[in-house]
Here is the input.
Amino acid sequence: MGDIFQRTRLLLGDEAMERLASARVAVFGVGGVGGYVVEALARSGIGALDLIDNDTVSETNLNRQIIALHSTIGQYKTEVAAARVHDINPDCGVTCHNLFFLPESRNDIDLSQFGYVVDAIDTVSGKLALIECAQEAGVPVISSMGAGNKLDPTKFEVADIYDTSVCPLARVMRTECRKRGIKHLKVVYSKEIPISVPAIEESEQQKKRIPGSAAFVPSAAGLIIAGEVIKDLIA
Here is the structure.
């Protein structure tokens, strides 16, 4: 096989490409945001990826998740993503962890083995546990804030969590990070005011407010995150 990263090498140079090839990155959450992170990292020459998610592809993922196809419905997202990575770069090592990262599972994965951690999970408790573990292990971490109920991908910014505004999830995370003594956290967030959407009826007894999402918003967040990971790894 020829040099599949020839075009990237022209921009970054040999030394940077060697750093990427020797890097191991963990992506927590392989959905609308995380799936595009994995895609871009694989196409950038990252040498090893760990994919952490316990969800399977569903029909409702088809509108926005790069791994979601009719042919992949019902399959673990990690395994679908791993197959896609190997089809892009057979030399990339991929390890799948079919689990949801929550405070109670924080000791299931040793974060010290990674060169970078991407937080693209949904639950606040899981995000906080992951961030704490990454910082305790001395591993750089970047966290995705809310991408749901938004339609403008140009509103995303990269900032420290304490410099964010507008985003409801970022507001919660600022408060919780302050309580935990987390002094810095790199995040990708949107300044777009979320659109109010009707609650989806799950049953006659209850309604669950599921966020609306489009193909071009979580994907933009994922690509921005991947770009930050690459820049930090070769800096």
Remarks:
- The chain has one domain: 12-234.
- Residues 12-234 form a domain with the Rossmann fold fold (CATH 3.40.50.720).
- The CA atoms of residues 202 and 211 lie 14 Å apart.
- The mean pLDDT is 95.
